[in-house]
Amino acid sequence: MGFPLSPIVANLFMEYFESKALASARLLPKLWKRFVDDTNVIWSHGQDELDLFFKHLDSQSSAIKFIME
After folding, report:
1. Residue 44 structural domain
2. Is there a domain that residue 11 lies in?
3. What is the DSSP code (8-state) at residue 38?
4. Radius of gyration, alpha carbons of the chain
5. DSSP structural state of residue 51
6. For residue 66, is it within any domain?
7. Whole-angstrom Cα distance, residue 2 to residue 67?
8. What pLDDT digit, counting tens, does each position of 12-48 carry?
9. Is residue 65 included in any domain, yes or no?
């Protein structure tokens, strides 16, 4: 079952991670929505800029690894 506080701690970490990553990004998505460990993003700046944004997210923490589908 796991430790009861694990989801709360994970959510707090992700909120911190998101605020840090989005505040330091050069361009922002039109929409950023997260549910547990899934993030839905609407991006309107082109594929090259999306790739740079993706690399930026991955460079923010060694504990979090993003994948793009």
Report:
1. 6-58
2. yes
3. E
4. 13
5. H
6. no
7. 25
8. 999 999 999 999 999 999 999 998 788 999 999 999 9
9. no
